[in-house]
Amino acid sequence: MQILTEEHSDFIIVSIAGLLQLGVACYAMKLTRLFGVQRVGWSLFSAFLLLALAHLIESVKTFSTGSSMGKEIEIIYAFISFLLLLALAHLETMLKDRQALERQAHKMESLGHLAEGVAHDFNNILTVIQAHSSLLLLEPKDSETTESLKEISEATKRAANLTQQLLLFGKQQSVLTENVNLNLLVYNISQMLRRLIGENIHLKTAHALSLPPIVANVGMIEQVVINLAINARDAMPGGGSLTIGTAAVKVDEAHVARQSQARTGDFVCIRVCDTGSGMAPDVLAKIFEPFFTTKNPDKGSGIGLATVHRIVQQHSGWIEVSSQVGVGTEFTV
């Protein structure tokens, strides 16, 4: 077996350093798409390409003459080039993540403006329909006509509720806030929720003791709880259990590492848990997208959870969701 000579080892080290710098040059050129600045990309590419060529020439010289500029220096060059490759790979990941967030934010803003414009016009039409159906109901009619008018009135109310959600989703301005006790808020709307979810679903509330108040808009937080409760009801067509709880929590670094939107500190949260059908991971990844729904068109608009997400963001909060098919779902706001 041939013994590796000093000249061979020098040649290998110099070649590795040159190839690593060539890799850095190519990576720098690849990042021009993400930087959006061609001049910067070409400058980085040219600089590292020249270094790579210099080292590759040095490797040929080392192989032919047996002399080199120093093994220690070449090892340092190779190590620095390797670190640069890692740094550029990390930079690429960060830039892609930032671009994805910017695209999503732009998409949400555009949809918000569209939803608000449509909702305003639609709400005006619904007001006319509702007013005329109410007037007709005041006049004596046969039972069949009266029943039809009631159906029209109820359908108009449901449509009006949808437009209110669209308007809420489209709002960009700051909201009026006050000190809110979540325990009292959940207690006050629990009776209404029992009527909304039906008798075949058992509603339980779990209030935390000595819960600190939060600064929020009461109507918007009520909308969050109602939307999550209705979503849970639709996931339990055959009945089940719905639990709405409050808690004071301390979020630490370990929790933040698991939840990218979380922040360390003291927070108050609402948990809405159901024993419904649950969601698969591919569905779970899309639930906050506007107009995404797994329900039938007559039962779901796909705007409810998007509205919840928008409200929570406006209150400087975040939502965590866990779900298992056939077991149930838990939303933590």
Summarize the entry for a quick read.
The chain is α+β, with helices and mostly antiparallel strands. The protein has 10 helices and 7 strands.
How is this structure best described in words?
There is one protein chain. With 333 residues, this protein is an alpha+beta fold. The protein is 62% helix and 13% strand. The protein contains ten helices and seven strands. The chain has a five-stranded mixed sheet. A two-stranded antiparallel sheet has the order 1-3. A hairpin with a 3-residue loop joins β6 (320-324) and β7. α4 runs antiparallel to α5 and α5 runs parallel beside α10. The radius of gyration is 31 Å and the shape is elongated. It starts with 5 loop residues before the first helix and ends with a strand. The model has no long low-confidence stretch (mean pLDDT 76).
